[in-house]
Amino acid sequence: MMPWFPRHVISAGRRTLQSDRAFGTQGARPRERVAPRYNPRMPFRAAASLLAVSCLFGSATLLTARPAVQSNQQPPASAPSTQSAADEAGAALLVRMCNKCHDSARIVERRRTKGDWQDIILKMMEKGAEGDETEFETVFTYLCRRHGLIRVNDAGTEEMMTTMALTRAEAEAIAAYRTAHGPFADFAALAKVPEIDAAKLEKAKDGLVF
User: Which residues does 113 contact at the CB level (< 8 Å), separation at least 6?
Assistant: First the structure.
């Protein structure tokens, strides 16, 4: 198998032949030429140089393509609503306060009225639950809104606002409608109250008692 010769050796041979032709020495007795010495390391050096160039080119390609990848990323999800954030904070506080003594899931196994949850919070405080006034209020609001039970025909404006997550105007509208038309027979009758967000009523439906 013939050895691989670098290009500069072949080019040197061509330049020598052209020089002989120019000076008319081509037909003369050929001079004894020493065959080029083959350096076995030369092919590996060339291969190493080629590999280095390939790596640089690949790095440049990745750097150029990186902004395109970033631009295709999805935008961050929108921030949760204020009510959802408050519920998450209340749930986290409930776990922190209760899990030292028992599983917090036991407390929310069934729905309770506003008065019942007030009693539960007082018992928690008596048994050493740790928290300040704001934290206990956050837990109480969370329990009423997510695990509350409300008797619609007896509830006052404040209780409807807390348990059903209504605005004051919506709670007052329900109270005024109840006064004008009598007690609500069922959920369908409550849904007839004008200017009430139907989605709020549907969300609180499981905790309504008529």
Answer: 148, 149, 150, 151
Q: Write down the mean pLDDT value for the chain.
A: 76
- What CA–CA distance (Å, rounded) separates 112 from 150? 8
Q: So what's the pLDDT on residue 90? A: 92
pLDDT of residue 99: 78
pTM above 0.85, yes or no: no
For β-strands 208-209 and 150-151, DSSP reports them as parallel
pLDDT, position 60: 47
Long-range contacts of 85-88 (CB under 8 A, 24+ apart): 86/138, 86/141, 86/142, 87/142, 87/145, 87/146
Whole-number Å distance between alpha carbons of 144 and 28:
114
Burial classification of residue 91, based on how many CB atoms lie within 10 Å of its CB (0-12 exposed, 13-18 middle, 19 or more buried): middle
Q: Which residues contact 65 (CB under 8 A, 6 or more apart)?
A: none
Query: Using CA atoms, how far apart are residues 66 and 29, in angstroms rounded to an integer?
Result: 65
How many Å apart are CA 124 and CA 104, to the nearest integer? 11
State how far the alpha carbon of 21 is from the alpha carbons of 26, 28, 88, 122, 179, in Å. Answer: 5, 10, 93, 113, 122
Measured at the CA of 36, the angle between CA 30 and CA 40, to 5 degrees, comes to: 165
Rounded Cα distance between 110 and 149, Å, is 9
Decide if 104 contacts 156 (C-beta within 8 A).
no
Where the chain has pLDDT below 70, the residues are 1-83
